[in-house]
Design goal:
The protein has 198 residues and is α/β, with parallel strands linked by helices. It has six helices and nine strands, in the order αββαβαβαβαβαβββ. A seven-stranded mixed beta sheet has the order 5-4-3-6-7-9-8, sandwiched between helices. A two-stranded antiparallel ribbon has the order 1-2. The protein is globular. It is an enzyme of class 2 (transferase).
């Protein structure tokens, strides 16, 4: 998560760890690469998000776009998601995430080292039930990503979309997306939407 400019410029400590907070891998700690601006979504926020998702995670096909450490997708897999596709354009983050999936013996997670826009700008073979979106702030990513999710038919009919964004920016969400939950903490707003039939 990238809350502000100061934190975006921070470099993750060599000894930094990601702790999974629930599910089969609860309390497992995994290394995080030393990458500028790379921070997992905090435990408190993740706990809130997965309370929101509640029973929707088990059996779901997920994608963690701009995944960074993969905190959200790993949490989903730990809690019974059928699969998760991780997408990130940072080579070190992608490689560490592959290593962490191997450490966990997770065969239902796949990592794509690529730009999220490039990944979404292709035909998909299976609609996603849950999408996690935590792009870098103030780069205009959401305005480009949200239309692609619909145009390329990435979403299942009742898909859930979790989004982290800067509080001062509210992009144009598709009219058939219903806001289920939303919270703000300083410059961060995080929310859960449900896609309705259109």
């Amino acid at each position: 998560m990238k809350k502000n400019a100061r934190k975006q410029n921070a470099v993750t400590s060599k000894n930094a760890k990601l702790r999974i907070i629930g599910g089969d891998w609860r309390s497992r700690q995994l290394p995080i690469p030393e990458v500028e601006g790379l921070r997992p979504t905090p435990d408190r926020v993740r706990e809130t998000v997965f309370n929101w998702l509640n029973f929707d995670v088990a059996g779901a096909h997920c994608a963690d776009l701009f995944c960074g450490t993969g905190a959200l997708g790993l949490e989903a897999l730990s809690r019974g998601a059928a699969s998760c596709t991780f997408v990130d354009a940072n080579r070190s983050a992608s490689q560490q995430l592959k290593n962490n999936l191997n450490t966990l013996n997770a065969t239902n997670g796949e990592v794509h080292f690529t730009n999220a826009l490039s990944y979404l700008d292709q035909e998909n073979s299976r609609p996603l039930d849950i999408v996690f979106l935590d792009p870098p702030f103030r780069k205009g990513w959401l305005e480009q990503i949200l239309p692609l999710l619909e145009e390329k038919k990435w979403l299942a009919q009742k898909a859930l979309i979790y989004i982290e964004r800067e509080s001062e920016n509210s992009p144009n969400f598709p009219s058939h997306w219903r806001l289920l939950k939303e919270k703000s903490a300083g410059q961060l707003t995080y929310a859960l939407y449900e896609r309705q039939a259109n």
